[in-house]
Protein: Protein kinase domain-containing protein
Amino acid sequence: EALRLRQGARLVAAGRFMDGIVACNASLTRLPAELPASLQHLRPTALLGHGAFAQVIEVSDGRDGSRYALKVVEKEPLALRGMLSQLAFEFGVQRSMRDPHIVAAVELAEDASHAYMLMELCPGGSVWGAVQHFPACVVPETTCSAWLCDATRGVAYLHDLGLVHRDLKLENLLLDGAGRARICDLGWCAFEADGRRGKCGTPQLASPEALRGEPHTLKMDSWALGCCLVQMLSGRQLSGPQDARLPLGASAAAQDLGQGLLQPEPSGRLGARAALGRPFLSGAPAPIASEAQRADCGGMELE
Structure:
């Protein structure tokens, strides 16, 4: 039942597209009065969530009733912070994703004030939300293994493209209609070769080397996978690297994986594909991305 819990209250649309949406004051994005022409067949049904720079709405297609998630981002708050290029990069990368473990973009659009990403709807909500419905927020190892394997496969796909997610966490893993976990929110995504440094993502889950100001590498995501493992098996929220340890009652297979993912030095830490070979994560590795897919991971132009 936890997989079917919805995030956000049901909404009733009236008049213009956004008239039925109760705006979220915690987000810097203000919802527009109407959508661009290419998206005007959509009708809002629920406010799914929000971030600092975006709001996500469940919508239905007025033509056939299909349901989607619509990410709405107002450009001005990003422009004032010099972040429009990051938004363009996120949309370009999301458009190129072709992996069942990553939420797919169906359509991209923009107008003078906003950018829009129409995505597959994951009706189970976030893994973080589902975790709250287990006793003491502790996930059984069989369920944890399945969700973490899904996430690790998605991370391995990104890494094959040379991309670092940089904000992997339970809130950014969504459950599809089959109860499988899929990665979302590529807003902090970057190419490893760019050698990004500094603050990004969620500080409490940052890897030790990121906190030291070192370049962000693929192993940064490995640390984040280890943090997801700890959170699901311990029921604890983490406040820094010092909390990234599994409970004593975790199985030997879980301890083995945790030790590999949570090595303090990135050189000794498991990569995503190596992690898939550990006993706790069953199943064969996903296919390696093609060179054509690598070349397609560029940004899009935003006006």
